[in-house]
## 1
Amino acid sequence: MKLKASITAWLLFAGLVISKSAAGQDTIKVGVLHSLSGTMAISETTLKDTILMMIDAQNKKGGLLGKKLEAVVVDPASNWPLFAEKAAQLLEKDKVAVVFGCWTSVSRKSVLPVFEKDNGLLFYPVQYEGEESSKNVIYTGAAPNQQAIPAVDYLMKDVGVKRWVLEGTDYVYPRTTNKILEAYLKAKGVKPEDISINYTPFGHSDWQTRVAAIKKFGSAGKKTAVVSTINGDANVPFYKELGNQKISAEQIPVVAFSVGEEELSGLDTKPLLGHLAAWNYFESISTPANKAFIAQWHTFIKNQKRTTNDPMEAHYIGFNLWVKAVEKAKSTDVEKVLTALPGLETPNLTGGIAKVLPNHHITKPVYIGEVKADGQFNVVWKSAGTVPGDAWSDFLPGSKDIDADWVTLKCGNYNRVTKKCSGQNYK
Amino acid sequence: MKFLPSGGQWVWTLLLAPWILFPIQAQPPTDAAFLSTLGELREASYSEKETIAERLSKTGHPSVRAVLTGFMEDRLCFRNSDRKVFLVKSNEGDSLNLADPLTLKDAGFASADSLTKIGTNNGLRHVLRTTIAHFALSSPDVSVRMEAVREMQQSLDEPTVALLRERSGVETNPGVKNEIATGLALASLDGSDPNARLEAVATLGKSVSQVVRNRLALLLENESDAKVRRAAAAAVATIDQWRTFYSAIETLFFGLSLGSVLVLIAIGLAITFGVMGVINMAHGELMMLGAYTTYAVQTAMPGHIGLSVLVAIPAAFLVSGSTGVLLERTIIRFLYGRPLETLLATFGVSLFLQQSVRSIFSALNRSVVTPEWMSGSLRLNDALTITYNRLYIVIFTLLVFSLILAVLKRTRIGLDIRAVSQNRAMAKAMGIRTEWVDAMTFGLGSGIAGVAGVALSQLTNVGPNLGQSYIIDSFMVVVFGGVGNLWGSLIGGMSMGVLNKLLEPYAGAVLAKIFVLVALILFIQARPRGLFPQAGRAAEDK
């Protein structure tokens, strides 16, 4: 016991020396963990640039706590084990105060143990499947109840959809989201024969059979819609096939959760006209804050044609929240920042306030837009006010009794029935 | 809402302003009603807009069709300064050419910022389309009339049926006449006379459309007359039979079109890997170069999208082909006979090509527009449609294949290639410049990869990762077909495509792919040399 105490004391001392020497440089290091090469580079490079822009702007305002911010950019190259390695490097070697990063759920799951072991702080900016709440992660993207559920509600109530095709790429986000949606639809009285769930491999490019099947499923005389969790690259051939088989958005609308302005900028929008997307941000929403953000982005990236998108806004919110938390805690110490974060508020770009909840998710407005010919969205529906992010879905039998609360319960996985916390890991 | 009355008055004053200014111009009363109804669109919600659109169509104003069509195509807007509604005729950059909604005459230009678009959503556009279909019934264009009748079949209310009946008397085109008869028969299923219903069922029994089948199935449930019910049951059974038959043909076509994509991406490899024995991991990236060439050509000739794809074919052949020759001269020729090193070196080249494309064109996908003649589908009947892009790719693949075959079998360079691949030493002894032939062969294979890239740009994303997703498939086809045999690649690719598509409806896309892979592994176990093994001494060395 004594030995352990002395080791702890020694380690503390060593830590102090190291942190002192780090402080001597008078910068606060901000880790950026986004793939700059490989399959995910297409989406993640933009997010890296967003954080660099935010850091740049913050430094121009005089930095934070009197120090300049310094970005530490690493490239995990769309390789999931490498994500964990690079996260460890950021936390252990570079001693960054905070990390902004990850896109896919698998990359987040792979860095999670590292952040929990080293007690780091990660801001995760992408919509995801939920069923998770870590002490060390702030989820600034949408949980299913902030994107998928409102979209389905819109189709059910405003469009009158009676038959559902849940079409997804075969990996964790679509599978979990579709499980939640299926349970939700059944709870709303949709019969099992009116739901069709299908998965296709990553990068699926031959959609003939699937689209023909959707056409057949949709010709039963009831209004049909497709809820798509198809991953980025497979979307273009999917929409092209829909267009070629003459299935228009008027007949069978497709609502997508991962098609945004950035993805649309790389494709011919003709076959997509009128199809829907559900997000918490659209570039086309005209508010002064959004206009200023777009102008700032164009200046920073030196390209007037670059679009802005939802995960970028999530990083914008996340960065501002972190700055506020550091100012409130008067320290970049992760424990102090994590204590300061819940309850903090910062304005969204599209109006409304993002507030950090005790479950480490935030409040977000929900928008549904139809694709226009110029690759932007025409907002056809928006939520009344903001929707608080729910870490554990209320529609899955395994997770409806589970609460996440890092303020009073100090637990990300608290079962209300058994009154047990299964630890800070989600499983 | 509370601003509406005052806003309304203001609008009225403005709408009336032209009358006050130009009192000479006599306005028939319907113009004023039309304009005021049109004006309501500015503040209406989507569901209110639907009823307004219906009221507009009832005004019977001569320009209503043009206005509703413009509305459907998102070309209706109002000027912010005086809230006057305009149709947008065309736009050149930021400046829009406007037309007056009443007279449809040119109303000059205005900047996009000074106008507010009157938005539509899917539901509204659907209502508009059905409304416009009523007008399109008398269009001189047969296909427009056909579409209109099909549109009307979906909402058969009293006035629609009356319109169809009226049209059936004057319609001359047999196809459209048939569709009208179907529509009228569908409507008379609701009638009270059992004989009329029986007659309608008899008419509908000839159709193969899903709409008709659903309607008849519904009739089966509610029909009281036994004779009609029996006829309907028979009709449903016949329709189902035909639909099963056509869906089998459809599946076959899906399989052939997937197969032809596989063949197309494999032909190039069949030459470089099959004939030369070079394991070229950068084959996919050569296809990617072809796809990017299509993008570049399209960007260079923005006015001629339809032509650009055709121009891109030789351009892509040249770009990828010369890259191939360069690759062969600088790297591969030093590595002949060392497959492992070739594999690693070409893999490195593939990464290099990917990253350079990423640096030049950015990591984002590039948008290649599908030309008009390649989009849409060929409708053979109600149960069978074939998409044009797939159809063209099947034809294109067969063309490319026969061209390559002709080059190999009928030309001097083909003779040289075959000679070198069969016996290098002997060919050299006969005076063939084997080094030159190697470069040309590799260039030919790479060029074909580029041509495949042009086809892929019409099917999928044009991005730095395009090649990666196809390289495995192309190797599979070549190995399955038998290394060194072009016919093997053709038969192999086609049968893999058909097998995949036969399995997909039952097993799902993921499992179907796995089954095909497992079947391939088992097949290779049994016949390691593929479907059509190369015979003779040369094969022994490989």
## 2
Amino acid sequence: MIDTINPTAKTVGILLGSIALGLTFDWRVNLAVSLLGLLFLITSSRTEPARLLKVALPLAVISLSYFFTGWLFSSEGAQFATSAGDLTLPTGRDLVNGLNLSSRIFAFAMLGISYGMTTDSGELIASLIQQARMPMKMGYAILTAVNLTALIKTEHEQSRLALQVRNIPVKPLDSKPLFTMMIRMVRWSERLSLAMESKGFSENRVMQLQMQVRTKDVLFAGGLPAFIMVLGFVLI
Amino acid sequence: MNRKPLSLRDYLLMSLIAVVFGIVFLTAVYAGTALTAALTPLGLGVLGYEPFYGIWYSAALVTTYMIRKPVVGIVTEVATALVQILLGNMFGAIVLISAFIQGVGVELAFAATKYEQYTYKVSMLAAVITTVLSFIWTGFRSNYLAMDWRIVLAIFVIRLLSALFFTGFVAKWLCDKLDEAGVLNHNLKASDAVE
């Protein structure tokens, strides 16, 4: 369903949709947006259930934390964030406030997850270069970094080990391996740029992957934020 | 001010530094999640990630110090966000807005000195501006108006302290050490970067 949407149009739609969601303050809108995000995810062939579950755990913790904060530490101004109908609920205004806050964070994350998990990295960069006028150098630099992530993680581990074998203690957020890594990244950036340019890399590079903007992409970019606005300000 | 356009090397350095800080930040995310879980029953879970915010702002400060060209802070933060999205960040596209705002915060501090001063005073100013701008944005996103003002104040104070420590102090200190090690090839001497 969402896999075939042009990545730039998808970015615009999700960004504007998120801003529209930020302007609404009702748990029912948040619930509808969360369900929409879930629909995007279950209809996508790119969704990996194991990865989705891995992301869901911290999301559940964050969402629950906002619920408790909204419930136990509700502001007087919270009444502006709930509709008049909510005030009559027997569960109390603070409980609804907690529900509003937790579902809000959950809805933002569902939109984000449905974007992140259904977008191919190569297509996103190609689309940003072709449709959003991102500099070719920036696009390929980002792709290079993404593809080198596993190697950078290994190098970081080795930096920590190198210090430990010399009997130098390394704490979880220690700056010593970070310092080593930054020196390596300066060197890598110099060597990689030399290697890429010697292979003929330039802004005039022709991309094999050509991304197109079709009517359905435009409809998605405008339709998603419009749907959330209508839901938040007209229907609910 | 160095007005030369950003080169492929600059973009690669920004993206690679973004991944390195992403790895460090991932450690902080685990710690933040644990802290959030522990504080949730007390209703203080929203403070769980706040002590680590400064790490996230640091990437822009480090690359601006290293490359010393305008808009490096913004480009680094946007590149960082794109790398995070491609690696599966749970908030997806919306981190682009957060990243842009954080980049602007760092950029404003250095732009005020016309990109000529790289002192602790400027790095601390960058930490303060970035905290204020990101606080306004997360306030909108998380609807701080619905929370008790004391919680909101605690969010701001902890985030500010984190930014002052990680962005204002640690990141600047690391950059000075890199400069002393002779790995930076920008057009200023190491002595110019020391107050």
